[in-house]
């Protein structure tokens, strides 16, 4: 688990980097600014609904997203402790997906009572189901492996970075417009991301140095200066 020492430069870098990452992600989402690269003519323009007509849905969606990321944070901490006790990524992923399937199956049946809608046909829907299954399994393996190696702070630090990556992908592959807010937010987000990565690297070096010094003192070997003093007596 993480150690919170406010006077330590490592902890300060983690806190400031996390704040910068979240701030950069909010700039990307909420601020557009002038257009740097215009959208391609063939890119579809989304039809924006007025906020008043679906204000309740916006509020419910925002609350559900906040609850999702709060539960994801708790999940990362719990799974880190699980990997310390049982470091077998594939078995943990298999049990995780199995439990998710058992829990979500009754909910899906209640939400969609029409049994004909569950019939699989060789079309784009089947491709989407297969892709989501493989992608979800691969995503779970990667982030559990990252939790086992680096801990929850390192893994959760990539969440805001995904917003900047998604904005870049929409410009490259979908031909959307690139705004100044996306560039500024991506720069702020990258600075915060690398600040947290730097702090984690310094923390690992410090832990390795402490473990090495404890190991050298516990194996019965005395330092060179102390042995010289003993022989000089």
Structure description:
The longest helix has 39 residues, at 180-218. The two termini are 46 Å apart. The chain contains eight helices and two strands; from the N terminus they run H-E-H-H-H-H-H-E-H-H. The chain has helices spanning 9-30, 55-85, 89-111, 124-149, 152-156, 158-173, 180-218, 224-232; strands spanning 35-37, 178-179. It is mainly alpha-helical. The chain has a two-stranded antiparallel sheet. Helix 1 packs antiparallel against helix 7 (180-218) and helix 6 runs antiparallel to helix 7.
List keywords for this structure.
single chain, 233 residues, mainly alpha, two-stranded antiparallel sheet, 8 helices, 2 strands, disordered C terminus
Largest sheet: 2 strands, antiparallel
Q: Which range best describes the helical content: under 10%, 10-25%, 25-40%, 40-55%, 55-70% or over 70%?
A: over 70%
Number of strands: 2
Return the string of H and E elements: HEHHHHHEHH
Rg computed from alpha carbons, rounded to a whole number of angstroms: 25 Å
Distance between the termini: 46 Å
Kindly report the spatial arrangement of strands forming the biggest sheet. 1-2
